[in-house]
Amino acid sequence: MKKNLLVKITLTTALIFVVLFQYSCSKSSDTNTVPVLLTNSIIAGVTTTSAISGGTVVSGGSATVTAVGVCYSTTSQSPSITDSHTSETVTSSFTSTMTGLSPGTTYYVRSYASSTAGTGYGGLIKFTTSTAANATTATVSTFAGNGTGGLVNAVGTGAQLYNPLGMAADAAGNLYVADQFNHVIRKITSTGLVSTFCGSGANGHVDGPANIAQFSSPNAIAVDKSGNVYVTDQGSNLIIKITPDGTATTLAGIGAPGYVNSSSPLKAAFNNMQGIAVDATGNVFVSDAGNNRIREVNTKGSVTTLAGSGSYSQIDSTSTYAAFNRPAGLAFSSKGLLYVADNFNHAVRSVTTDGTVKTVIGNNIQTALIGNPVAITFDASDNMYIVDVAGRVLRYNTSSSVLYDLAGTSGTYGFADGVNTTAQFNSPNGIALVSGVPYISDSNNNRIRKMVVAN
């Protein structure tokens, strides 16, 4: 217990970002110490001539920090402030844009912090800028929906949806969409044919066959390997299971907000669930946003808390000593590791089977990195696709630790098909991959968008 409490206290400080960064420390003397800091382990926004890095100051040392930034070089593997470097406003955690870079060139990067005692450096990372030939392009088009909120089953833009949220795909390539304000689950085939998979359209809660079942603002969705569809029903605070024939049954929840674990799933309570995922053996996991916890419904029906203390914070620790801030989308990597879009922490976190939580990307100071992530998914190479509700889609290359802005612009809300930042979204909320192609639920545009990514 004392050990876990120590972990909790320590990680409440800037060290909560230790999984994001590499550690470096140096001293100028026993009494005159330079700052200690961590370098972001990811590089974001890589183009032919620019990229974003950053760092976190763990300790200011024996004097006040007067300058922070990153230094970089194409030749020195220990770049310093005598090399090219940026300068940022002094804060405990910062991002910094390197400009004027050369295309197709490898750079070595370290963060730095200076004081009258000297300069401390973070750990070294390296990356390679893009070239015009291998630059990533993401072409966005409208796959289904015509922008008008409604419940019309048809092909492509002849169909109407009403604030579509969570999305998932089955093994045959069909998309399932939580159509929030229509209170139904829609199915979209690979040809763009939109139909109502389950739900009468009435706002309420009724289990039963597809045509009589009722939902109340469904918002997150997952599909298991047998084709069963799982839905978090926001208005009723229930988890609903829908069999392939469209029959809906309550899996867990009492139908009212609360926080209760139970060996009887219909006696458990949840509060505003925002994400759902199913593992390879059929265990169901939900991000219980109102309770700031990740909950599990195992194959025997028992509901437990996998991780989260309930407090609004960003703490990397074990089980109920960890903390989230409005966790949203969930997804499993090919290795079976659960990832969480931690919305208000502006971060993506990982959670092991024993409940150990680590931050993978982002924190509540470096908010520009991934904005407000609400949905995540993985491709066959374990590249992570991230939906930022503020208006963009990103991809994190796990092998190179490079984060790319694929399409849209954070803080820009609108509608436009196009390439990269010429495309616009309006509160995108869900994502699913079919044969490696991302589909995004563009909620306030009442559309499903398709994004073809090259490189």
Describe the structure using short key phrases.
455 residues, 5-stranded mixed beta sheet, 5-stranded antiparallel beta sheet, disordered N terminus
Question: How does this structure look, described?
Answer:
The structure is a single chain. With 455 residues, the protein is mainly β. The protein is built from one helix and 35 strands. The strands form eight sheets. It has a five-stranded mixed sheet with strand order 3-31-30-29-28, with no helix packed on it. Strands 5, 6, 8, 9 and 10 form a five-stranded antiparallel sheet that branches. Strands 32-11-35-34-33 form a five-stranded antiparallel sheet, with no helix packed on it. A hairpin with a 4-residue loop joins strand 17 and strand 18. The termini are far apart. The N terminus is likely disordered.
Termini separation: 48 Å
The class by helix and strand makeup works out as mainly beta
Helicity range: under 10%
The biggest sheet amounts to: 5 strands, mixed
Total beta strands = 35
User: In one word, what is the shape?
Assistant: globular
Whole-number mean pLDDT: 92
The number of helical segments is: 1
Biggest sheet: strands side by side, in what order? 3-31-30-29-28
Radius of gyration equals: 23 Å
Which percent band covers the strand fraction?
35-45%
Q: Residue ranges: pLDDT <50 for 5 or more in a row? A: 1-29
Short description:
The protein is mainly beta and 455 residues long.
Would you spell out the secondary-structure blueprint of this structure?
Elements: H1 2-11, E1 21-24, E2 36-40, E3 43-44, E4 51-59, E5 67-73, E6 84-85, E7 93-98, E8 106-115, E9 118-121, E10 125-128, E11 137-144, E12 164-169, E13 175-179, E14 184-188, E15 194-198, E16 218-223, E17 229-233, E18 238-242, E19 248-252, E20 273-278, E21 284-288, E22 293-297, E23 303-307, E24 327-332, E25 338-342, E26 347-351, E27 357-361, E28 373-378, E29 384-388, E30 392-397, E31 402-408, E32 418-419, E33 428-434, E34 437-442, E35 447-454
Parallel strand pairs: 3-31
Antiparallel strand pairs: 1-2, 2-4, 4-7, 5-6, 5-8, 8-9, 8-10, 11-32, 11-35, 12-13, 13-14, 14-15, 16-17, 17-18, 18-19, 20-21, 21-22, 22-23, 24-25, 25-26, 26-27, 28-29, 29-30, 30-31, 33-34, 34-35
